[in-house]
Each structure stands twice: as structure tokens, then as C-alpha cells.
Amino acid sequence: MKIFDLMEEHDYEQLVFCQDKATGLKAIIAIHDTTLGPALGGTRIWDYETEEEAIIDALRLARGMTLKNSAAGLNLGGGKTVIMGDPEKIKSEAFFRSFGRYIEGLSGRYITAEDMNSTTQDMAWINDETDYVVGLEGKSGNPSPVTAYGVFRGIQAACNEVFGSDDLNEKVVAVQGAGAVGYTVCKHLHEAGAKLVITDIRKDSIQRIVDDFGATAVEPDEIYSVECDVFAPCAMGAILNDFTIDKLNCKIVGGSANNQLAEDKHGKMLEDRGILYVPDFVINGGGVINVYEELKGYNEKRALSRAGAIYDTCKKIFAIAKEEGITTAEAADRMANQRIESMARVNSLYLG
Description:
With 352 residues, the chain is of the alpha/beta class. The chain is built from 13 helices and twelve strands.
């Protein structure tokens, strides 16, 4: 594995390896781009099979955060942390305080937050060692509700584009992933009159949504072929690939999962099948909007209002894709990168 070749491909700035034998910490911090501001991205904990898999995931997620933060109109660059290990076994106060010291050592180039398998308590321990952490209790807290609201608004925008109306009554939505975000997405959809089909690897999480919202449960492998209006991936990434796209029986793909396209070509495959893809880093931007508001002085109503504007961003992307004859994934990348390029020119002005 040639790490510098990987970093050169999308011009990553920095890759930091953090190891602490005493606590068992094995963390990788990837900083992609800081043109717009300090790199912000959550801390993901996963029991990766190999170090190579963890490095690749950190790099992919960091670049996704650059695009997400830019598309959301935030003055933040993109970064991400992945921590290797079983989240049920490795956590402790010392573990996260050790990690917090590594973040402090970056002197503000990177700001972390919650992500998969990390919690507000974990962030509080990190905060004991550094101020470069957001998503804290008593401030913005858990970003899941705002993330979910943004996803709901993105689904509405896609339905308006495909069906001519925001109305979700009787629309069938197949949701993959019943975690904190997936549950709240289901809540919004249920309240809007949608019919839900749900799957997850955790049976108790599925049952909660079945009980609360009258959803129909299916096995994980069955979710792709469910006949539905919208397929909402709200779990792991890279689930839209050569095998799954052929199974899809929907008109729209839009959900909270990061890096949904396994490869760039899969955006075109979805378009060729007549499926409208809502770019993941746009529709799931509510979480980073929420924690950005914490940096500005948190206001929940303002955070929700800004997340609601994801509707308008999605419609803008759909229009760019139509006008320029490109996929929605390409349109979203272009919009985000154009903002970074324009701000790079502004930042080049010498202030004295």
C-alpha cells in the first residue's frame, strides 16, 4: 500500500497515526482540505479487519467531509478520525482523554465530533483534554435529530423532482439502518404519511420502528429489491455497487449514510436506470450544520432552519445536473468544489 500515492490522488493534506499502548488507542486522523477553515469531522469507531481498510476509510470519509461542509455553506474544511477496535470493548475515560491530547496537538487544524459508535460521553472525555471538539451535551448535543430532519427534507425535494409534489402520503420508503438517525428519519416519514419498510443487523432496533411506526421488516439482503418509491440508505457506505444497483426497485435513492457510491461510476449507473440519486454529502449535512452552530453559539431553531434548507440545495443540484447533462453526484461535487476554489482566491489576498 503506497500511502502517499493515495494522498496525492485527491490532494490530502495530512494523515496522523495515534497510538497509546497503555489504553489500547489506535486512531487515524485524516485531514483532507483546510481551504475553507479548520477540518471538521467525527470520530468513527469500527472493528476494521486490517489497517489498510481503516486508512482507506479515513481518507474517503475526510474527503466527503470537505465536500459536505462546502455544500452546506460552512467555513470548515474536511477531516475524519477512525478508531480501530470493538466499540463494545475498548472504551474508557483514559482511552478518550489520550485521544484528546492528540487532537490538542494539532492546534486547531482538526475539530472532532460524534460519529458511528461514539457518543456525547466520549466527546466529554475528549473535551477534558482539548477544546477542539463539538457535539457536547448542554451545547449542540447529539446531532442525529438535525441530520434526520435534513434527510427528510432532501427526500421531499427528490419527491418534488420526480413526482411533482412534496407530499409523502402513501409513498413507500425502504430504510436501511435503524440507528439514531434512521429511527428519526422514519419518525418524520411516518408523520408525513409514508409507508415504511425497515431493515438493520440489530433485531431490537428493527422491532422498535415496527412497533412505533407500523413498519414492515425485511432481512438485510432483501432491502435492495423492495418495491418502493424511495430507498433510504442510513447505515454503512459503499452499498450502491455493481451488485446492488441492479436489484433496486425504486425511483429515488436518498439517505444519511456516507459514501454511498462504491465507485464514481455508480452515479451514472443509477441515472441510466432512471433512479434519482440525492448525493449523500448534501442530504446528510444536517449533522455538521448542527455542530457548526455550536461553534457560532448554539441555537436549535437556527440549526433546524439551516438543515431545512437542504431542500433548496438538493433542488439546485438537480437543476445543475439537468442543465449540464451530468449526474447529480457530479453536479454536487462541482458545486462544492467551485465554492472551495472561489474561497481559495479570496484567501490568497494578503491582509498585512
